[in-house]
Structure formats: C-alpha cells, structure tokens
Amino acid sequence: MQKIYQIRCSCGKTHEVAETAAGSTQRCSCGVELEIPPLRQLRNCPTVERTEKKAAGKSLQEQEAGVRQRRLGLLVLTLVLAAVFGGFSVYYYVTRPYIPKIAECNLYETWQVWQYLRPGIDAPFSRQETLLLHSIDVYWRWIILLGVLSLVSLGSALAILLMPVKSN
Predict the structure, then answer these.
(1) 7 CB neighbour count, 10 Å cutoff
(2) Is 53 helix (H, G, I), strand (E, B) or coil?
(3) Low-confidence spans in the chain with pLDDT less than 50
(4) Helix (H) or strand (E) holding 48
(5) What is each CA distance from 119 to 41, 47, 108, 130, 162, in whole angstroms?
(6) E-strand spans in 20-155?
C-alpha cells in the first residue's frame, strides 16, 4: 500500500500526491501553481491509503504498458545491433585473406609457392608476405570483436526479455 497525501488548492479542488513529490510544484486545473510542502510538513497533511498504485494520473496497467513499450524498444535495438555485428562478422569471415594450401592450388599458384621456397624455408618474409600475414591478423581481430559484440547484444536482449515488469 502506498501513502497518498491530500493537498487542497485555493479553488477548493483536492490533489493527491505521493511522498516523492515533496518540495515540488504541481499545476491545478484552475491554473494555479500548487507548492507541495517539504516532506516534514507533508506528513501533517491528510492521507489516503491506496491499494492500487497511482502515480502522475496513470493507472497500474498504463504504467506497466509504458514499461513494456520501453522494454520492447530496447529489445528491438539490441536485436538490430546483434544482427549488424553478426552480419559484419560474417562479412569479414567470408572476405578474409588466407594463405593458400598447396593441395588446393592450381599450377601457377604452386609454381609461386615453389619459387618462394626455393631459397630456403628460413628466408625472411618478403614485404608482400608480411602485409598478408598482418591483414589476416587484423581480419581475425575484427571477426572476434564483432562476434563478441553480437553475443553481448543477444545476451542483453535475453536479459531484457527475462526481466520482470515492475512499476512504480
């Protein structure tokens, strides 16, 4: 049960306010600004015990509907982020550079590998090979980062779905 205090306007209308509104102002339908007293003085005002929560003129069902709408918006946002991150991760995986395997090479590629290996396996990497290895490393970092972000977004969406609806 929530304790609601009654404040009377100069026009005679009674306004119901919660403790959280102490020290603020509220506009009456007659146009007068009501100053809600501080909490110490507010506790001396007449009270009404409510079993149904009511805040800012909204019923419990309206408050829960608002919470559900905000939650649905967050859910859609996190699922869109998960899809975007997952899509980029798949794109980087599909377009990543790779070192060809000899068994899968055509005759020309096999000849290039042989030309490379002819001076010896301990020869230092050429500039082109260094760039290839670096680009492979960068692609894998992007794939892992985007995959992790996609999983975090999906986890957030799951947390939003499992969160209980609480209204004020």
Answers:
(1) 19
(2) coil
(3) 54-55, 167
(4) strand 47-50
(5) 93, 94, 18, 17, 62
(6) 25-27, 33-35, 47-50
Amino acid (one-letter) located at 62: E
- What pLDDT sits at residue 48? 80
Sheet of strand 2-8: strand arrangement: 14-18, 2-8, 47-50
Q: Is the pTM of this model over 0.85?
A: no
Q: What is the structure's pLDDT at 50?
A: 66
Is the distance from CB of 5 to CB of 18 less than 8 angstroms? yes
Q: pLDDT value at position 39? A: 85
44 half-sphere exposure, CB direction, 13 A CA radius: 5
pLDDT at residue 101 in the model? 79
Q: Residue 33: beta bridge partners?
A: 27
Amino acid of residue 125: F
